[in-house]
Amino acid sequence: MDITMFCQRIAELAPILPKKLQVKDSARVITQGTAFGDLHQDCEIGADQILGQFLYEFFLEFENVRYLEIEGLSGFSRNQGKWAVYVDPLDGSLNFKTARESGSCGLPYTVCVTILEVKTPLASKFEHIVGAVVIDLRNEDIWVAYKEADEFHTFFNGKPAKTRPETKVGIGKMIVFGEMYYPSNRERLCRMFPEEKGWLRNPGSAAYEMASVANGMAVAFICDQQKLHELGAGYALVRGAGGVAVGFFSGTYFTGDESYVFNSQRPVILAANKWIARDLWQRLAR
Question: How far apart are CA 232 and CA 187, in angstroms?
Fold first, then answer.
């Protein structure tokens, strides 16, 4: 099985995964969140663990998966296979919780999968990323990226994805996503756009926000401490759609030599193109 087929098999889970969340079992309540941004009453039915356990069993069936790590759960490793798979089973847990409470579809909550080619397990880099899948669990929108001949190719709902063509940021005419969870990032984002009316937004699922840059809904995503279990997928999706990744503080483009550690964080700007990235970084540096 090649990486294209593997990503497609993951994407085929889109209509199955939401059904796994339709569980009414008070015994499965989690009382304390386990990830960086989890709720203290995490998803009331333990959605992270329910989806995580299902995905664990799904990936266990693939002999090419050598390493698996799922946020909040233990993974597995074995002596065969060529891929390392990293999963955030429910990115946007607050959105999921409030959607259940309100009885509506709510803001986005996603499954996020990043696939790396196994080189040296303790020294993985962004250049080792070979595939990514993000699934919006509300409506089954699917973003897929895979690498062929050292180039990413990104698809949104089965069609080639493309970033936006604008070369100058104007939040009155385009959407910029910024991570509002971290106070330092909120403050910086507000200073970037003084007196400007417009669409600086944060739907609450970083995987969804980064994926939205890839298919042109947003022009950029900005965060000063983004978790890598989402950033790896976002990086692949945006690169495959023609966009760029830029260091938040350095303003330099990602080369692929940056280290990839599942439970670490990295400051980043994901942008539709190099001109948008440069505009945003200059605003940050002011």
Answer: 25
| Paired strand residues for 113 | 87, 133
Q: By the 8 A CB rule, do 138 and 105 touch?
A: yes
Alpha-carbon Rg for the chain in angstroms? 18
At 108 the three-state DSSP class reads coil
Residue 3 pLDDT greater than 80, yes or no = yes
Q: How far is CA 84 from the centre of its chain?
A: 16
**By the 8 A CB rule, do 86 and 69 touch?**
yes
**What's this model's pTM, rounded to 2 decimal places?**
0.92
User: What's the rounded Cα separation, in Å, for the pair 134 and 198?
Assistant: 27
Contact yes or no for 173/280 (Cβ under 8 A): no
Give pLDDT, residue 122.
62
**Cβ atoms within 10 Å of 173's Cβ, excluding its own:** 11
Contact between 65 and 99 under an 8 Å Cβ cutoff? The reply is: no
- CA distances (Å), 211 to each of 69, 83, 112, 142, in order? 21, 22, 10, 9
Q: Phi-psi region for residue 44, left (φ > 0), alpha (ψ -120 to 50) or beta?
A: left
All domains in the chain, ordered by first residue? 3-158 (3.30.540.10), 175-285 (3.40.190.80)
